[in-house]
Amino acid sequence: MSDNTHVIPLERLNHAIRLLVRGFGSSEGEVEAVASNLIDANLTGHDSHGIGMLPRYAAAFLEGGLKPNTHVKVQLDAGAMLRLDGDAGFGQVIGHEAMALGIERAKAHGSCIVALGNSHHLGRIGAWAEQAAAAGLVSMHFVNVISRAIVAPHGGADARFGTNPFCAGVPMTGRDPVILDFATSVIAQGKTRVAMNKGELVAPECLLDNTGRPTCEPRYTVVPPFGALLPFGGALGGHKGSGLAFMCELLGGALAAGATQRSDESSKKRVLNGMFSVLVDPDALTDRAAFEAEALAFTDWVKASPVREGFDDVLIAGEPERARRAQRTAQGVPVDATTWREITEAAASLGVDPAEVNRAAGLGG
């Protein structure tokens, strides 16, 4: 581990981050929801969606783009279809409440479509698929991002999309669920922020600079002049990532939220998400035992593939996150020094003593 990286024990990190989140004026329930969701993203190895987002949240709050203590609002209740508005509330609260409503309806009707708009950053979308899977439901989620455009369309030289994540979850009784969760860009935008803070380059064929030329410098998606991430798939398959990002914009944006990413939002710190979710109760559709037996048989067949040179294992979606969660829960959460400094500066901007946050994290005064 680099000398410029703090490794913070989970219990201390929980304490420190809750101190900071109280600076938003949040209720204790909201403090718990926001802190636990962000820390869980770090635990799963998705530092891009973890506590490093707090400086952005603080800036959004201070400019009026994030509203603490806000709850999801029902705009349309059609039984198995819900249209919801997040009113720019914390996505960690809005997302959980939206999924709870959808789960209740899917249990009653066999399925539910949840159209959620105007939520502040929903964080790691896999958390919402995990919530549905814990209730025994299959789910799919298409998400758009209203912020500064950051991803170029296939063949394009500047940014026109957000990172527009797609997620799906499948529960299996007695086994961990399969959770597929990915940005439709080659890498998540937050990963470039993490790389820049660590002083690292990103891999080739991930980024364009502000002139549309390939670059490995992460700064082009963090500070101006801005470039763009590329859609996943590379030169030959980039139309796939670009196409799925487009569908996330149409479904999570135009249909669910009534808003798409098509303006210059570079001056605003808030990040708004729309999410189009489909929740299905397997019990209402088929014989769950037969479905799960077939799914498990297929999973075992896939994992029995001989491991190719250069790889350690054949992994199923969700397994890397669970392995990293176990490791970091036991050993602590690594946070690079630049990110931690930004976090303590965010605390100060919210009226929280940075020294107190540092002491809570075990990093002295």
What is this entry, summarized?
The protein is an alpha+beta fold and 365 residues long. It has a domain at 1-62 and 332-365: Hypothetical Oxidoreductase Yiak, Chain: A, domain 1.
Explain what you see:
With 365 residues, the protein is α+β, with helices and mostly antiparallel strands. The protein has a domain at 1-62 and 332-365: Orthogonal Bundle (Hypothetical Oxidoreductase Yiak, Chain: A, domain 1). The chain is 41% helix and 18% strand. The chain has helices spanning 10-21, 28-43, 54-62, 91-109, 126-134, 189-198, 234-255, 282-285, 288-303, 319-331, 337-349, 354-360, and strands spanning 5-8, 73-77, 81-85, 111-120, 138-146, 166-172, 175-182, 207-208, 214-215, 228-229, 272-280, 333-336. A 7-stranded mixed sheet has the order 2-3-4-11-5-6-7, with helices on both faces. Strands 9-8-10 form a 3-stranded antiparallel sheet, with no helix packed on it. Strands 1-12 form a two-stranded antiparallel ribbon. Strand 8 and strand 9 form a beta hairpin. Helix 1 (10-21) packs antiparallel against helix 12 and helix 3 packs parallel to helix 11.
Terminal CA distance: 22 Å
Strand order of the largest sheet: 2-3-4-11-5-6-7
The main pleated sheet reads as: 7 strands, mixed
- Counted beta strands: 12
Mean pLDDT: 95
Strand content: 15-25%
At the third CATH level, what is the topology name of the domain at 1-62 and 332-365?
Hypothetical Oxidoreductase Yiak, Chain: A, domain 1
Envelope shape: globular
Global structural class: alpha+beta
- Compressed to H and E, one letter per element, the order equals EHHHEEHEHEEEHEEEHEHHHEHH
Work out the helix count.
Answer: 12
CATH class of the domain at 1-62 and 332-365: Mainly Alpha
Helix content: 40-55%
| CATH architecture verdict of the domain at 1-62 and 332-365 | Orthogonal Bundle
User: How large, in whole angstroms, is the Cα Rg?
Assistant: 20 Å
Q: What's the CATH superfamily of the domain at 1-62 and 332-365, by name?
A: Malate/L-lactate/L-sulpholactate dehydrogenase, four-helix barrel
Low-confidence stretches: none
